[in-house]
């Protein structure tokens, strides 16, 4: 595979050309003293980019959006969204830019996108900037999610800008360069629908079909097929979040992708002690986006997508609503099936067992975890040892030992495969205390803890001597909170 130096990168502007009503031409803010903090070399190579060239001043200019090919057309994207249940008709990229689209080595189209690149007309009074810590958080967590096999946007680089950012304190600024199948969101459709421009809504839907769900184009009702596909993609995605213990933290409709990728790692975190009511986001005062609420909120967000698509579903609104409702009702069984599949692998159980039996066993174990405040990741991983005959490490965590022993007997009778479990239940996730430790060190100028953390979370199933601390639960007496960084 050939790789291109930064100076010869070709950035397409298909989104801007096909949907100019949703694309505002804009430029990234220059950086007074750019310095590369972290570069995802494997991802760069996958995109056909030369990692060495990206480390040059010209390469940093590409990563910052300040030194682009002459034919590039960077834009801030327009979208609307329900934020914590309240509708905002005009959100958009307030501190972000779509630089353009690349074709990766497998022939797939990928967005090259910035976060923290300065104010745009969508900034709504914000400064458009980002601090080092939140940008590195997105880098760490998105790469961990990729390593776990969960669909996600990915981080290509974080570049310190040399510009101070005022938050609660003055912090060093940075820009995240990220890659996605696209940045089309439910909020994109909400924005188009609010314009009452049926042609724009149709062109947006056609763009989404061509880019993400091409089979829908050949369906008898292509736009209904698009909705069906997004319902299925989101059901699968959220089931994977739940199985691994990921808390997104801000499931607004502008953070729900049409592709089915996880996007916008702001106040996100992974469970420590298992508790469905867990909320990490400092701004989620009512617990709307608690871990256990994520499936319900995903379906709620998809209902907003259906509302935006209604004019395309049928000329008669009532019939369009009926079609949308019938499709939306498929979310619950699709989610249940996807979650059952994940639990089947986590429990090491063979195919052929009924989903309700598998889900029932998984839920019973989680009740024991909840009662004993068992660390979610450690508890599931120790189940492999129990499958091999050594249940004592797990028994040391659970309070109700008679109930656990009875559960273990029923589970072992089904013939769990410990090897399958080892490939499914991670040893390492980005544990919250270690993420904060690495981000604090990086903000102070020490990148070594970040590099060590990245090495651990991008090999999540491997038991590596010397990395034991990355597998250990965090302190139980810390009320952990996350922040979006704006």
Key features of this structure:
about 475 residues, alpha+beta, five-stranded antiparallel β-sheet, two-stranded antiparallel sheet, 19 helices
What does this structure look like?
By secondary structure, this protein is of the alpha+beta class. Helices cover 44% and strands 12% of the residues. A hairpin with a 5-residue loop joins β6 and β7. It starts with 13 loop residues before the first helix and ends in a 15-residue tail after the last helix. The model has no long low-confidence stretch (mean pLDDT 95).
Give a short summary of the structure:
This protein is α+β, with helices and mostly antiparallel strands and 486 residues long. Helix content is 44%, strand content 12%.
Please give the number of β-strands.
11
- Helix share of residues? 40-55%
| Distance from first to last alpha carbon | 39 Å
- Taking pLDDT < 50 over at least 5 consecutive residues as the criterion, the unreliable ranges are none
Tally of contiguous helical segments: 19
If you compute it from the alpha carbons, what radius of gyration comes out, rounded to the nearest whole angstrom?
Answer: 23 Å
Structural class: alpha+beta
On the 0-100 scale, what is the average pLDDT?
A: 95
**Global morphology:** globular
Report strand %. 5-15%
Largest sheet: 5 strands, antiparallel
Arrangement of strands in the largest sheet: 2-8-9-7-6
The sequence of SSEs as H and E is HEEHHHEEEEEHEEHHHEEHHHHHHHHHHH
């Amino acid at each position: 595979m050939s790789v291109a130096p930064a100076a010869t990168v070709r950035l397409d502007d298909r989104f801007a050309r096909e949907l100019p009503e949703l694309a505002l031409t804009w430029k990234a803010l220059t950086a007074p003293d750019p310095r590369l903090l972290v570069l995802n070399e494997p991802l760069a190579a996958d995109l056909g980019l030369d990692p060495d060239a990206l480390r040059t001043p010209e390469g940093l200019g590409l990563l910052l959006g300040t030194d682009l090919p002459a034919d590039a057309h960077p834009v801030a994207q327009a979208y609307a969204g329900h934020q914590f249940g309240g509708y905002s008709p005009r959100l958009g990229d307030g501190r972000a830019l779509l630089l353009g689209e690349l074709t990766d080595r497998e022939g797939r189209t990928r967005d090259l996108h910035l976060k923290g690149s300065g104010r745009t007309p969508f900034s709504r009074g914000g400064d458009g900037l980002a601090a080092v810590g939140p940008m590195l958080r997105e880098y760490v967590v998105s790469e961990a999610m990729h390593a776990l096999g969960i669909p996600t946007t990915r981080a290509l680089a974080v570049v310190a800008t040399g510009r101070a950012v005022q938050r609660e304190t003055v912090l060093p600024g940075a820009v995240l360069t990220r890659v996605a199948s696209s940045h089309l969101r439910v909020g994109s459709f909400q924005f188009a629908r609010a314009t009452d421009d049926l042609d724009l809504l149709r062109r947006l839907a056609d763009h989404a079909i061509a880019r993400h769900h091409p089979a829908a184009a050949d369906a008898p009702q292509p736009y209904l097929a698009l909705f069906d596909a997004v319902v299925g993609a989101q059901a699968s995605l959220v089931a994977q979040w739940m199985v691994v213990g990921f808390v997104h933290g801000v499931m607004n409709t502008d953070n729900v992708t049409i592709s089915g990728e996880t996007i916008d790692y702001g106040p996100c975190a992974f469970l420590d002690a298992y508790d469905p009511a867990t909320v990490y986001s400092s701004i989620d005062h009512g617990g709307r986006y608690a871990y256990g609420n994520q499936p319900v909120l995903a379906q709620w967000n998809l209902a907003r997508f259906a509302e935006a698509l209604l004019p395309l579903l049928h000329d008669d609104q009532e019939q369009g609503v009926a079609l949308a409702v019938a499709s939306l009702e498929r979310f619950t069984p699709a989610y249940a099936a996807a979650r059952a599949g994940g639990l089947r692998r986590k429990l090491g159980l063979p195919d052929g067992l009924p989903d309700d039996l598998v889900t029932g066993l998984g839920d019973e174990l989680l009740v024991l975890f909840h009662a004993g405040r068992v660390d979610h990741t450690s508890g599931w991983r120790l189940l492999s040892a129990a499958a091999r005959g050594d249940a004592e490490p797990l028994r040391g965590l659970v309070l109700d030992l008679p109930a656990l022993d009875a559960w273990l007997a029923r589970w072992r009778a089904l013939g769990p495969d410990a090897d399958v479990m080892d490939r499914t239940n991670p040893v390492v996730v980005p544990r919250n205390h270690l993420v904060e430790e690495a981000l604090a060190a990086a903000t102070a100028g020490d990148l070594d803890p970040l590099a060590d953390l990245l090495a651990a979370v991008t090999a999540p199933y491997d038991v590596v001597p010397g990395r034991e601390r990355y597998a250990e639960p965090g302190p139980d007496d810390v009320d952990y909170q996350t922040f979006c960084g704006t």
